[in-house]
Design goal:
Elements lengths: L16 H20 L3 E2 L5 E3 L1 H4 L4 H7 L2 E3 L5 E4 L4 H10 L8 E10 L11 E10 L4 H17 L7 E7 H11 L4 H12 L6 H12 L3 H13 L8 H4 L3 H14 L5 E3 L13 E7 L7 E7 L14 E4 L3 H10 L12 E5 L4 H13 L4 E3 L6 H10 L4 E5 L1 H6 L2 E5 L5 E4 L1 H9 L1
Parallel strand pairs: 1-5, 7-8, 12-13, 12-14
Antiparallel strand pairs: 2-4, 3-4, 5-6, 6-11, 7-9, 9-10, 10-11, 14-15, 15-16
Helix pairs in contact: 1-5, 1-12, 5-11, 6-7, 7-8
C-alpha cells in the first residue's frame, strides 16, 4: 500500500503551534481595534447557494475561482469565496429588526481556486468589517480610518504603507463621458486598468487600443493623463468636473480630520468586484520586498436589495491574515513567538503528585502551567520546554514540596530564584 502524503491540499496551509500564535496575534489585534469602533461579531455558514455570488461578485470569481458542487439535494452550492454577499443576505433577512448603523465584523476562513503564490492561498482567513445604513461619506471615512488604525496598532508607521482611494462613480464617468466607451467597452477598460500593474506597458497599450477602436491616438493620450495624475488637481479639467469628485474630496477631508495621513488619490484604482458603487480603496505596502496591495474595500449600496429587501447603504473592508503576516514580517513587526504557557514544571524524581498540587495553585492564580508527566530525565524535560518556547521552568522535587520554595528559571536570561507559589504568581503577573 502506498503511503499517504503528509502534505496539505495544494494552496492550503497547516498551522502548527508557532504558526497559530502569529495568526492568533493578528486575529486578536483585529478584534481589539474593530470593537473599539463599536463593531459586533457575527458568524455565518461556510456553504452558500452559488447564485448569491453569481448575482454581483463578478464572473471571474464565480466561473474560475469558486469551489462549487451539487449537494445530495440537487442544490448547487459553493464554499464561500468572500463574505460580502453573505453578510448582505443576513442583513436583508433582518432588515427591519437591526439597529442602524449596523456595525458588524467576522473573522472567518474562505476558499478560492487561485494560483498559489506569496500572500495568496486557496484557503485564507479574513477580517470582514461592514457598516450598514449610512448614506453619508462619514461611513467611508470610518472604514478607511479603521484600516489605518489596524496597521498602526500592529506598530506600522507613516510611510510603511499608503492608502489609495478612488470612486466607482468617477470611474464610470471617466469611462463613459471622458473616454466615450459603451457599457461593454467600459467594463473591458475597467478590468484592463485593474490589471495595469500586472502586465507590461506595451501590452496595456495594445489592449487599450483594441478596446478603444477608432479614435486611438487622442484617447490613448487621455489614458496616459489619467495614469500620470497623482492627485485630483492634476487630473484633466474635464475629469475634475465629474460630480463624484466632490465625494472624493469629502473623503480626503474627513480622513485628514481623523488623523489619517497616508491616503492618496489614484484614478487607476478600480477594485475588481462588480458590487462596488462609490468609494473604493486599497492599502499598499511600500516595502521593496513586499510592494503590493495588502487589502481593500469600499461602498456597495446595491447588494442588500438583491435579496428582495429594501436597498440599504453599506461600506466594508477585508484584510487577510497572510498578507498582514507578510507585511509584519518584512517590516520587523512580528512579536516574539513564545508559548501562551507561562510555566513548564520539571518534575524531579517521584514528585509528580507534589508538582500537580503546585500546578493547581498556580492555575488558580491565573497562570498557564504544563506539567511534565513522562518521568524522563531532567535534560529531556528541559529540552521539551525550550522547544515549545515556554519562558519559565519550575523545578519541583520532594524537598521543594516540603519547604514550599521552588526554583523558577527564566529561560531567556537564565536567572533562577527560589520562590513560593504566591511569589511565583505575583512575579509572572507583574
Amino acid at each position: 500500500m502506498t503511503a499517504l502524503s503528509s502534505q496539505p491540499y495544494k494552496g492550503t496551509r497547516d498551522y502548527y503551534p508557532e504558526d497559530k500564535r502569529v495568526q492568533n496575534y493578528i486575529f486578536e489585534t483585529w478584534k481589539r481595534v474593530v470593537e473599539q469602533f463599536g463593531y459586533e461579531e457575527y458568524g455565518a455558514p461556510i456553504l452558500e447557494n452559488l447564485d448569491i455570488y453569481a448575482a454581483k461578485s463578478g464572473q471571474e470569481l464565480v466561473n474560475e475561482q469558486t469551489y462549487t458542487f451539487t449537494d445530495r439535494g440537487g442544490r448547487t452550492v459553493a464554499i464561500r469565496p468572500e463574505m460580502t454577499p453573505t453578510i448582505s443576505r443576513m442583513v436583508a433577512a433582518r432588515r427591519q429588526e437591526l439597529a442602524y448603523p449596523a456595525r458588524l465584523f467576522s473573522i472567518a476562513n474562505f476558499m478560492r481556486y487561485e494560483r498559489p503564490q506569496r500572500g495568496r492561498e486557496r484557503e485564507f482567513w479574513q477580517l470582514n468589517v461592514d457598516v450598514f445604513g449610512v448614506d453619508e461619506i462619514a461611513a467611508d471615512v470610518e472604514i478607511i480610518t479603521m484600516a489605518d488604525t489596524i496597521l498602526k496598532e500592529f506598530g506600522a508607521k507613516s510611510g510603511d504603507y499608503v492608502i489609495r482611494i478612488n470612486n466607482r462613480k468617477f470611474i464610470h464617468y471617466m469611462m463613459a463621458e471622458y473616454l466615450g466607451l459603451d457599457s461593454v467597452g467600459a467594463l473591458q477598460m475597467t478590468k484592463l486598468f485593474d490589471r495595469r500593474n500586472k502586465i507590461t506597458e506595451q501590452d496595456f497599450d495594445e489592449q487599450a487600443l483594441q478596446i478603444l477602436g477608432e479614435a486611438q491616438a487622442d484617447d490613448i493620450a487621455k489614458i496616459k493623463q489619467i495614469i500620470d495624475a497623482n492627485s485630483i488637481d492634476s487630473l484633466p479639467e474635464e475629469l475634475q468636473r465629474a460630480a463624484a469628485i466632490d465625494e472624493i474630496r469629502a473623503v480626503f477631508d474627513g480622513l485628514t480630520k481623523a488623523g489619517v495621513d497616508g491616503a492618496v488619490f489614484d484614478a487607476t484604482l478600480m477594485r475588481g468586484l462588480d458590487y462596488y458603487t462609490g468609494t473604493v480603496f486599497e492599502v499598499f505596502d511600500t516595502h521593496p520586498d513586499n510592494n503590493r496591495s495588502l487589502f481593500g474595500g469600499g461602498r456597495y449600496d446595491g447588494l442588500v436589495g438583491l435579496f428582495g429587501a429594501e436597498p440599504i447603504s453599506a461600506v466594508g473592508m477585508a484584510p487577510g491574515n497572510t498578507m498582514i503576516e507578510n507585511f509584519l514580517d518584512v517590516h520587523g513587526l512580528l512579536p516574539a513567538n513564545t508559548s501562551k504557557t507561562d510555566v513548564y514544571v520539571v518534575v524531579i524524581g517521584d514528585a509528580l503528585d507534589d508538582a500537580r498540587c503546585v500546578a493547581y495553585e498556580l492555575r488558580q492564580g491565573g497562570l498557564n502551567v504544563e506539567v511534565d508527566i513522562t518521568g524522563r530525565k531532567l535534560d529531556k524535560q528541559i529540552k521539551t520546554a525550550v522547544k515549545k518556547s515556554i519562558s519559565h521552568l519550575l523545578f519541583i522535587g520532594a524537598q521543594d514540596a516540603e519547604s514550599g520554595q521552588y526554583s523558577l528559571k527564566n529561560v531567556d536570561d537564565e536567572t533562577e530564584e527560589k520562590l513560593s507559589s504566591e511569589q511565583i504568581i505575583e512575579k509572572l503577573h507583574a
